[in-house]
Amino acid sequence: MKDTREVTIYDIARQLHISPATVSRGLNNHPAVSKKTRQKILEVAQALGYRSNTFASNLRRQHTNTLGVIVPKLNSHFVSSVLAGIEKVANEAGYNLIISQSLESAQKEVANANTMFKSRVDGLIVSLAFDTQDLSHFNPFFKKGIPVIFFDRVEQSLPSSTHIIIDNEKAGYQATEHLIQQGCRHILHITGNLTRNVYADRLKGYQEALKAYGLPFHETDVIVSMLDEKSAWETGRQIANMHPLPDGLFVANDTFAAICMQALKEKGIRVPDDIAIVGFNDDLVSRVVEPPLTTVHYPGQEMGELVARHLINHLQGTVPLTHTHTIIIHSELIVRQSSLRNPQR
Amino acid sequence: MKDTREVTIYDIARQLHISPATVSRGLNNHPAVSKKTRQKILEVAQALGYRSNTFASNLRRQHTNTLGVIVPKLNSHFVSSVLAGIEKVANEAGYNLIISQSLESAQKEVANANTMFKSRVDGLIVSLAFDTQDLSHFNPFFKKGIPVIFFDRVEQSLPSSTHIIIDNEKAGYQATEHLIQQGCRHILHITGNLTRNVYADRLKGYQEALKAYGLPFHETDVIVSMLDEKSAWETGRQIANMHPLPDGLFVANDTFAAICMQALKEKGIRVPDDIAIVGFNDDLVSRVVEPPLTTVHYPGQEMGELVARHLINHLQGTVPLTHTHTIIIHSELIVRQSSLRNPQR
DNA sequence: TCAAATTTTGAAACCGATTTCATAATTTTT
DNA sequence: AAAAATTATGAAATCGGTTTCAAAATTTGA
Predict the structure, then answer these.
(1) Which intervals hold domain HTH lacI-type (chains A, B) (predicted)?
(2) pLDDT digit string (tens) for B24-75?
(3) What is the nearest CA distance from B167 to chain A, expressed in angstroms?
(4) Which bases in strand C are touched by protein, i.e. have an atom under 7 Å from a CB?
(5) Domains of chain B and CATH, by start
(6) Residues of A from 41 to 100 whose C-beta is within 7 A of strand C: which are they?
(7) Are B124 and B149 in contact (CB under 8 A)?
């Protein structure tokens, strides 16, 4: 037998011969209610199995206590760490989360944004899809003054919003520099859509490093890819057939790097001896391939916590949004076998 | 300048000199409103930038058009495929999604369930955490008649709910049989918490296969693990030191299998020649390790679509929930190098 | 002890859409 | 053309908390 009737504050009020107003206040720890009554209210609420009706509440106060999150894909170590971080902070602050994935499609990202808008999230956290150019789907949020905060995949041209990112240029520089220091002289850079900051900046770093060490930069050494599994295999095989063979690879993500490496090995090319490889993200896969992959680590959980905290602080008025912020968080190169030319014992 | 005032059906009504009731009907395609008025309503709504207030709506009709999803972890290929499937079907049917991860902790799963309950989801989709024993956190849903549907990680003892799973016993049997056919005579099975159906059933399949081929079963050949990265390395090294060495490994997931393989190789053990390995899940990692991993594939997206469709059908009254269903969907063994003892050609 | 200050409480309006029931407008029947 | 049937619209109640404003109860001060 299912109980179908919901318990409301009116039920509690009736039972205690007090007004619903007082019950509401009691339930919300409003200071203007005596300990005794609050205590009694809590007890009766408990006994009756009361649960607050979020809709009534949301309708009256004009906010939802809900944060929206749009990410490109859920199944990466990085993204799910970020999410864990966001969830932690959001939970502690009493915020709910609506999460959706754009699956790297700008079109789906637009749909997601619209859904979030209709759901009236109090704030939005976004990491852009691969091919998002036009950002007008966030205009409704801007117009309404709903804060939108971007992380990792951002669009810095955007006038008034906060970005939380790593220093991709520096990371790109370090990765490339490392390869050079390992003796590489002809380094390919495999990357994604160059309109996306993360890829554009890493490329910049790559170029800077080449210049700093007096190596020439060739347009043809930069391979722009969709970064999906299929192109990874193709690209890997393609590289294996190059003549002359490059001696270094700086790849925009670990999965792609791992697949390339596999493809190269199948063609009898030795890593790192013939080609040294550096990936990006410190995904689990970087640790299980043979040889283990040198990569750039950046702290997902921490980033998520920071993003969420920042957004919530803003929502609670602690921090005014006056100016655009760009917050840069730490990243580091993790050196493993795939790039070590002269193993130091 | 942000516009702060929300447009309501009253604004539309005023503008057209009609009643809010008619506007509401017009917006909802209620039959009792003439094409002409509906048309006008739609136009004005558009012009004014009206967006329906979900809370008012939810408050009045007593449902949310929202589905809750609780999964153990977001960052696996399987889970994110399932989610994509769920999202597709839910979107098409006009349902929103609230997604949360239990991070394999029963405690967090309870918290998630409570949040979902407070959010008044119309239905709940769950894949259980690693160590969830007690299912009482779903009681509120059962009591209220809110449908809960389980997939993959289920608890079949549960009286009245639907389960959508693969035939883990069969998959376990096939994996083990394959190893036996490749000449393995001493096969270890590495698995997770045996109270969880997926692991218990695969173990059963493993035992059945041994029996069918006249091989002895030893308790000590079953290694129960937390299945995290750290234990994977430890277990791998442990196995490498076994004496005598087993000649086959059937591992409960690809990540763990990949790490084990790596650990074995580091100790100079050849795969598949010394030890043949079969994983589970067909995660991307299974394709990039060396040698590629034999594994069990099961269709996440399809499973997600099925789960969502089933739930929504039920919610819309198409399908009565009268009896418990168990729906079994197809899975298959994908043979790759990690288990091929006698490469054909 | 009585007035002033402070703390608690309640009545009623409100948030915005939905829906019932009645009425007005239109169409069909005879 | 009048009556009957059908269709379209509106008034008002409702969903369940929150909040303003005023009043009641209690405490403090002199």
Answers:
(1) 7-61
(2) 999 999 888 899 999 999 999 999 989 999 999 999 998 888 999 999 988 8
(3) 24
(4) 7-12, 14-20
(5) 9-52 (1.10.260.40), 66-166+300-330 (3.40.50.2300), 168-298+333-339 (3.40.50.2300)
(6) 56, 59-60, 62
(7) yes
